[in-house]
Design goal:
Elements lengths: L18 E9 L3 H19 L2 E6 L4 H7 L5 H9 L2 E6 L15 H10 L4 E7 L12 H4 L3 E7 L7 E9 L2 E7 L4 H16 L4 E6 L5 H13 L7 E6 H10 L6 E4 L1 H12 L9 E10 L2 E8 L16 H13 L4 H16 L2 E2 L1 H5 L8 E2 L2 H21 L11
Parallel strand pairs: 1-2, 1-3, 3-12, 5-10, 8-9, 8-10, 13-14
Antiparallel strand pairs: 4-5, 4-11, 6-7, 11-12
Helix pairs in contact: 1-10, 1-13, 6-7, 8-9, 10-11, 11-13
The structure holds 3-isopropylmalic acid and magnesium ion.
The site of magnesium ion has 2 residues, from helix 9.
Length: about 400
């Protein structure tokens, strides 16, 4: 049904490890709940496939402002850098939302992306067949939707300086800076070409070249890189028109590459196709390699959702699927990643639904409305059932050392 994002050839060790060291960052709002669910699934996968995790819990975000007075301490960034991968919940707390505040929890997320050199954010968008009815988009349009949004993550308006409000004789004025170096554009564009090569070989580059200089350089660089990938078909789309086509004909897209803010916006839009923002995982990666794959940070694309925090109603599936991406990209365990993805599909096919997934359709016969932890349990049960079937058929490949 879906095309998993193809990891690059990382030159990783042939034998995956028995123990992985993970930095776990629950963060704010629903972060701790969805991470708890995700951890249970990862632990279960380790039991079933014969490996384990060492978890190093790190406080970053509003919780760190509460505990230490800063959104992120240097030593916590260092702990994330030292781990094999970072498993991340969400950041953001309305308590710190004062627009005049100099320090905000989100700054930690940006500093972490920058500090770990995670220049590419990979956001796969697929639609679970049983959730087609949960999307407000007509079901017939969702057939064949399988795209990967590659969002540039450490440049553009998010990091350009100056970014400030100032007083002038004419009143307040404000500036944000959209700046990209050629190198920043080229590395993410090349990665997107590589990823397209491992999928359906179609790349859509999204920009606003009819208005922005930055977009014109972006487009030029895509054209410069294109000859190195003659097997990949490339198209350019303007972001406004692309936003429309994403809903009108979503199955057209394979890999989309775009700058930071456009990618932020388009990926939330694309999540509507999947039925809920609570379904979409992400991986943020850069140049750094570990013995088992790329170093990376794995997080659901949704935020901290403070309005539903602490109520055990948040959908943990995006976090669970982010765990699968971590196994595939950072930990050298693609078969385990697939097993978790299949277990998510199976739990949904069994009728398990968190409230966000019921909201669109109302409760249907055969559906079981469950909370965060019960949904994670349903995935664990499906994972165990899948593994025991495979044992019957000759044992799970990875435990048997087949990979
Ligand atoms: C995301 C989020 C973040 C972003 C916020 C929380 C800073 O929306 O990961 O998409 O804008 O990058
Ligand atoms: Mg966003």
């Amino acid at each position: 049904m879906t095309t998993p994002a193809q990891p690059l050839d990382t030159g990783a060790a042939a034998e995956p490890a028995a123990t992985y060291r993970l930095a776990v960052v629950p963060g704010d709002g629903i972060g701790p709940e969805v991470i708890a669910g995700g951890r249970r699934v990862l632990e279960a996968a380790g039991r079933l496939f014969g490996f384990r995790f060492e978890w190093h819990k790190v406080l970053i975000g509003g919780v760190a402002m509460d505990a230490y007075g800063v959104p992120m301490r240097d030593e916590d960034l260092a702990a994330c850098a030292a781990a094999d991968a970072v498993y991340f919940g969400a950041i953001g707390d309305p308590k710190y939302d004062d627009p005049k505040a100099k320090v905000r929890p989100e700054q930690a997320l940006l500093a972490m992306r920058k500090g770990l050199g995670l220049y590419a954010n990979l956001r796969p968008v697929t639609v679970q067949p049983v959730l087609r009815g949960s999307s407000p988009v007509r079901e017939s349009l969702l057939e064949g939707v399988d795209m990967l949004i590659v969002r540039e993550l450490t440049g553009g308006l998010y990091f350009g300086k100056p970014s400030e409000q100032r007083d002038t004789p004419a009143g307040r004025e404000v500036v944000d800076t959209l700046i990209y170096t050629e190198g920043e554009i080229r590395r993410v564009v090349k990665l997107a070409f590589e990823l397209a090569r491992g999928r359906r070989k179609k790349l859509t580059s999204v920009d606003k070249a009819n208005v922005l200089s930055s977009s014109r350089l972006w487009r030029t660089i895509v054209e410069e890189v294109k000859p190195d990938y003659p097997d990949v078909t490339v198209e350019h789309r303007l972001v406004d028109a692309c936003a429309m086509t994403l809903i009108q004909r979503p199955a057209l897209f394979d890999v989309i590459v775009t700058e930071n803010l456009f990618g932020d916006i388009l990926s939330d839009e694309a999540s509507v196709l999947a039925g809920s923002l609570g379904m979409l995982p992400s991986a943020s990666i850069g140049e750094k390699r570990t013995p088992f794959g790329v170093h990376g940070l794995y997080e659901p694309i949704h935020g901290s959702a403070p309005d539903i925090a602490g109520k055990d109603v948040a959908n943990p599936l995006a976090t669970i699927l982010s765990g699968a991406m971590m196994l595939r990209w950072s930990l050298g365990r693609p078969a385990v990643a697939e097993a978790i993805e299949a277990a998510v599909g199976a739990a949904l096919a069994d009728g398990y639904r968190t409230p966000d997934l019921v909201a669109a359709t109302g409760e249907q016969p055969g559906q079981k409305k469950v909370g965060t932890q019960a949904m994670a349990d349903a995935v664990v049960a499906a994972l165990e059932a899948g593994a025991s079937q495979k044992v019957g058929a000759g044992g799970p490949g990875e435990r048997a050392g087949a990979r």
